[in-house]
């Protein structure tokens, strides 16, 4: 004879039973009992208890709508549980359609990452988010970037501890074959980065995956590891060779500058309300193009003259691609 459930186990069972019945919208007693690992009689007793449970109304007295209810004919004649009225459950906060869509987009992005090859859990969570929203969320689709395809072979090279080679296109548009020891893969926003020991420069360098091509994994063991080389948490570090640039940026956009404002950046409020002067350091003036393009109308390059000319020439070249 099975031991009776303890009070705590019984409470857990009852709390789990109601959502189960709501989700299944009709289930036979033996099937429900097998799902929870209880006897058929224990399941019938639990259903009868639920049918006299609820939450009192404003008058602190129970009215018919304040109690759970079931299809008694189906229960007594067919041994089938059909919940016809639920209380309190529907009063719980739900995601709005927009909130659910945003979360679903995030889950789609996660499911595209190589480390999430077993996507059953993510798919199950996506279905629950969609069904639990206050309204049907808008269909969303997140396409994986081309750089994401490089994450898997790079991670395999990291695990194997072997050297890699690839063509790398710099921000200036120059392309060069690089031979590196991979040390770490990082992501920031939508961009992936490889941090590696560059044998050509005898130093640690950070490479954007979307600028890499013709990747080759060698069988040559790496000569530098993460234990040999200090890797800071921030992706980009200033160096004595960096160039100083003075910019004017909207106060609201200042937090969006990210690694363009490393530790030690000098900022001061400008004379015009809502704008801030910032002195930043960049590896080369061509790096300002991405900064200006990402914050159109919010960043102005003030100096030096070479930096202003580089950005202005780039903008004119872009405009020349459009018809008059």
UniProtKB/TrEMBL annotation:
Q: Ranges for the WYL domain?
A: 151-216
Ranges of residues in domain PafC HTH: 9-130
User: Which named protein is this?
Assistant: WYL domain-containing protein
- What organism does the UniProt record list as the source? Amnibacterium flavum
